[in-house]
Structure formats: C-alpha cells, structure tokens
Amino acid sequence: SQQGEEDPQALSIQEGENATMNCSYKTSINNLQWYRQNSGRGLVHLILIRSNEREKHSGRLRVTLDTSKKSSSLLITASRAADTASYFCATSGNQFYFGTGTSLTVIP
Amino acid sequence: NAGVTQTPKFRVLKTGQSMTLLCAQDMNHEYMYWYRQDPGMGLRLIHYSVGEGTTAKGEVPDGYNVSRLKKQNFLLGLESAAPSQTSVYFCATVLGLATNEQFFGPGTRLTVL
C-alpha cells in the first residue's frame, strides 16, 4: 500500500490565487518531499522537509509538516498558468513511497 | 551532463514477448529506482538498487527482474510481458540517503497487447 495520499485529487483555480494541497502518510518518516510532474514528463523535485522541521519555504512554495497528524501541506502562492501540473508527496527511507497526486489546473 | 536517460521512449509488445528497459545516469549516484505509473495510482516502486551489484524488491516486483552490473546503469527486464504491465515506467536516482532528492528520467511508455 502507498504511504502518501494527497488531497484533493484535482484542483482548479484562477491565475493569481493560492493553491493548497495536502498529504497524509501512515508511518514515521525521516523526511517528506514534494514533486511536480508536467504532463508526459518525469517528476521534478520541489522541496524536502525533514521530520524535525515544521515549515519550509522556497520561492512561492511553502511546505508544512505536522508529524503528530502525519500530514503535510504544499502551498503555492500567486499561482501562474505554468504551475499547471500534478503534484506528489513522497516519504522516504531506503525506499520512496509516493501518493496518488493532486492535479492542479491554473486558469489564465 | 545528460542526467538520467531511459531507453526506449516507447515500445509496443505482444503478450509473452520479453524486453529490457535501460536506465543510464552520469551523476555517479549510488541509488537507482524503477517505478511504474498508472492512472490514479501514483508511482509504485518495482525494484531498486543501493549500489553496483545490489538489487532489492519494491512494492510491485512480480513479473520484473533487474540488474545493476555497472554503477551507471540499471536494467529492468520483462521476461514474459502481460497486458497488466502496460504502463509508463520511470527510472530515478539518488546520490545518497542523506540528500534524498530523486532525479527522474523522462519515462518509457510501454503497451502490451
């Protein structure tokens, strides 16, 4: 079974709005990562947050981690049409476990 | 640097045929992974390798075999393809567990008829 589950499965917003995606996982983790996948492409690493961190920023991305609730959120601020993609969370040890992804559509 | 490359990009097989997918990396990464991605299923780990000469099973290893004879290459084999193996296959590499960032190849789209 997969470790991570994203919510919502699909999200559609207007350009300029913020997009929030959530990830829940099942067991203890060393870190949690978020990846982006454009249609027909491989995944690209966005950001990693370690289990002892609660929040991390990278440009327009903000990731939070709540290990007590086994959940993480990814916030994309001031979205752009180019942010349209699928977003996956992944937890890792020796193996990586990916969620089913959130499909984000940003309407110009 | 080419990063992570996958060969071939597309392939159509008939049931029962065999094939090998090649993943090559020029980043000197220790860890390599093979995933399959199916609609609504996310990525599922097939096999992985923590170094040259080593392989291990992932979440969905049945029907696949792998080899890591050289550090830069990770081969995924299908001995007798089945329609259930129709999928997009991705290879990924990681420098080491301390960094944990995965670098993905562009994918191989496989159809088994």
Describe the structure.
- The complex is a heterodimer of chains A (108) and B (113).
- Chain A has strands at residues 5-7, 10-14, 19-24, 31-37, 43-50, 55-58, 61-66, 71-76, 85-92, 96-98, 102-107.
- Chain A has 108 residues and is an all-beta fold.
- Chain A has no helices and eleven strands.
- Chain B is an all-beta fold.
- Chain B is 0% helix and 50% strand.
- Chain B has no helices and eleven strands.
- Chain B has strands spanning 4-7, 10-13, 19-25, 31-38, 42-49, 56-57, 65-67, 73-78, 87-94, 103-104, 108-112.
- In chain B, the strands form two sheets. In chain B, strands 2, 4, 5, 6, 9, 10 and 11 form a seven-stranded mixed β-sheet that branches. In chain B, strands 1-3-8-7 form a four-stranded antiparallel β-sheet, with no helix packed on it.
- In chain B, a hairpin with a 3-residue loop joins β4 and β5 (42-49).
- Classes of the chains: A mainly beta (108), B mainly beta (113).
- Chains A and B meet through β4, β5, β9 and β10 of A and β5 and β10 of B.
Helix and strand arrangement:
The complex is a heterodimer of chains A (about 110) and B (about 110).
Chain A: E1 5-7, E2 10-14, E3 19-24, E4 31-37, E5 43-50, E6 55-58, E7 61-66, E8 71-76, E9 85-92, E10 96-98, E11 102-107
Chain B: E1 4-7, E2 10-13, E3 19-25, E4 31-38, E5 42-49, E6 56-57, E7 65-67, E8 73-78, E9 87-94, E10 103-104, E11 108-112
Strand count, sense and closure of the main sheet of chain B? 7 strands, mixed
The biggest sheet of chain A amounts to: 6 strands, mixed
Tell me the overall shape of chain A.
globular
Strand residue content of chain A: over 45%
Number of strands of chain B: 11
Number of strands of chain A: 11
Uncertain spans of chain B: none
Query: Which descriptor suits the 3D outline of chain B?
Result: globular
Poorly predicted runs of chain A: none
**Relative strand content of chain B:** over 45%
Query: Which structural class should the secondary elements of chain B be placed in?
Result: mainly beta
Structure annotation, total helices of chain B: 0
Termini gap of chain B: 36 Å
User: What is the helix/strand order of chain B?
Assistant: EEEEEEEEEEE
- Helical content of chain B, roughly? under 10%
| Multimeric organization | heterodimer
SS class of chain A: mainly beta
Whole-number radius of gyration of chain B?
13 Å
The most extensive interface, with participating residues per chain, is:
A-B, 25 and 25 residues
State the end-to-end CA separation of chain A: 37 Å
